[in-house]
């Protein structure tokens, strides 16, 4: 996967669900997802604007999606 420059939290959430993650819960403005096979947890801040690219990169790295 090439590194996206920017992405909204909703688009990122759709990407993660498409990669097999399942929404576990939401607390405040943060949604917590878990992958049932790998057991990885990912936290997505659900703010109205695009995620900062460093935050986006870290979320994708924690999800194991940065090597494609």
Give the gist of this structure.
Helices cover 31% and strands 24% of the residues. By secondary structure, the protein is α+β, with helices and mostly antiparallel strands.
Describe this structure in words.
- With 68 residues, the protein is an alpha+beta fold.
- It has one domain (9-63): Hypothetical protein (Metal Transport, Frataxin, Chain A, 2-Layer Sandwich), CATH 3.30.920.30.
- 31% of the residues lie in helices and 24% in strands.
- The protein contains 2 helices and 3 strands.
- The protein has helices at 9-18, 53-63; strands at 22-27, 30-34, 41-45.
- A 3-stranded antiparallel beta sheet has the order 1-2-3.
- Strand 2 (30-34) and strand 3 form a beta hairpin.
- The longest helix has 11 residues, at 53-63.
Which short descriptors sum up this protein?
31% helix; Metal Transport, Frataxin, Chain A; 68 residues; alpha+beta; 3 strands
CATH topology assignment: Metal Transport, Frataxin, Chain A
Q: Strands of the largest sheet, in order across it?
A: 1-2-3
Q: What is the second-level CATH architecture?
A: 2-Layer Sandwich
Major sheet description: 3 strands, antiparallel
The string of secondary-structure elements, in order, is HEEEH
State the helix count.
Answer: 2
Beta-strand residue percentage = 15-25%
Write the layout of secondary structure elements.
Blueprint: H1 9-18, E1 22-27, E2 30-34, E3 41-45, H2 53-63
Antiparallel strand pairs: 1-2, 2-3
